[in-house]
Amino acid sequence: MNTNSNKAIIEIRAGAGGDEAALFAADLFRMYSKFAEKQGWQIKNLESNFSSLKGFKEVILQVSGENAYNLLKHEGGVHRVQRIPETEKSGRIHTSTASVAILPQAEKTEIEIKPNDLKIDTYRASGPGGQYVNKTESAIRITHIPTGLVVSSQNERSQGANRENAMSILRSRIYALKIEQELTKMGQQRNIQIGTADRSEKIRTYNFPQDRITDHRIGKSWHNMEKILDGNLWSVIKKFQK
Predict the structure, then answer these.
(1) Does the structure show a pLDDT above 50 at 55?
(2) How many whole angstroms separate alpha carbon 134 and alpha carbon 144?
(3) Where is the Prokaryotic-type class I peptide chain release factors domain (predicted)?
(4) In angstroms, rounded to a whole number, what is the distance separating the alpha carbons of residues 192 and 78?
(5) Same domain membership, residue 172 and residue 122
(6) What is the mean pLDDT of residues 104-123?
């Protein structure tokens, strides 16, 4: 199977650190979204699960553009942030984490999913902080019985659109499992990327007091962190293209 794809799915999940981890997940979501915009890529938010302070417990987006997967694949892993949270009154620095998984987008022709292998549930969608509750059961949860994979989507107002989003996520996860079976690599890579989101498992640290981002895999640091978090990620990504 060919993992060179112009489409990638980015899964971001808050890890250790509660609300601060969810806010950091939102920062990473914004960073990758802004980077994709600067590349002229298309962006689609497939699923989002908000926290109480406008952060994300989980957010999944699809980016489509030239060489998208190959440019982003090294972003997978546990990202750690060190900063003083807005809710911290004593000025103490907190450490929180968020995990990122990067998957190549699987097309319908690459992954055949039999309807009989799916268990589909519908439920009412809820928006940020429960402020908006959909009056119809437009949200979709799909269980792939052979693998036990479960995906959900509630971002769209229509059941059909949410089903399409959920199927996109499901196909990519099944695709990763199939590559694991063939190469004993890709599925393990996704599990490594997600990890346990523990503070000690990290590929990169964002240190706000020192205005420094450090990638621990290559021992390289960058300053001007606000610019990078604003989507100017190319200086980081190009190091891995070498």
Answers:
(1) yes
(2) 25
(3) 124-140
(4) 9
(5) yes
(6) 82
Residue 201's SS3 state is coil
Predicted structure pTM score? 0.77
Q: Check whether 222 has a pLDDT greater than 90.
A: yes
Tell me the C-alpha distance between 79 and 199, whole Å: 9
Q: What is the CATH number of the domain that holds 216?
A: 3.30.70.1660
Q: Are residues 129 and 78 in the same domain?
A: no
Give me the count of residues in the chain. 242
Distance, in Å, from the CA atom of 50 to the CA atom of 208, rounded to the nearest integer, reads 24
Find, among 35, 22, 34, 101, the residue nearest to 67 by Cα: 35
pLDDT on residue 21: 93
Last residue of a domain, one of 182, 202, 222: 182
Nearest residue to 9 via CA among 37, 56, 50, 44: 44
Tokens of 87: 């809710």
